[in-house]
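re the bet — no i am not wrong, look at it urself. input seq straight from the record:
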Amino acid sequence: MGKEENKKSIDKKISTVKFECSQNSHLTVNQAKCAKCKQKPCLFICPANVYIQDEETKEIVVQYENCLECGACKIVCPKKTIDWNYPASSFGVVYKNS
């Protein structure tokens, strides 16, 4: 399977995940610390594209509604700028047995 086919397969699987979104984000980014990070691995590691960089302000925008709760962003962040918590009770990803 080629890289592009694999990406489509992952995107297809992610699109089937059910979310119960809270009004409050369970993810926050310390923008001052984040601005000092040159690599910004959070933009590339997240399988659900939770983090995007605003073209004008260069700040990281958090689309927490997409979070799969894998924690990869917190692990790879070299500046430890991401405050990652589980969503409030009854919110977040709804996993099912397949």
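see?? The helical segments are 3-14, 31-34, 42-45, 72-76. told u. also The CA atoms of residues 54 and 86 lie 25 Å apart. so pay up
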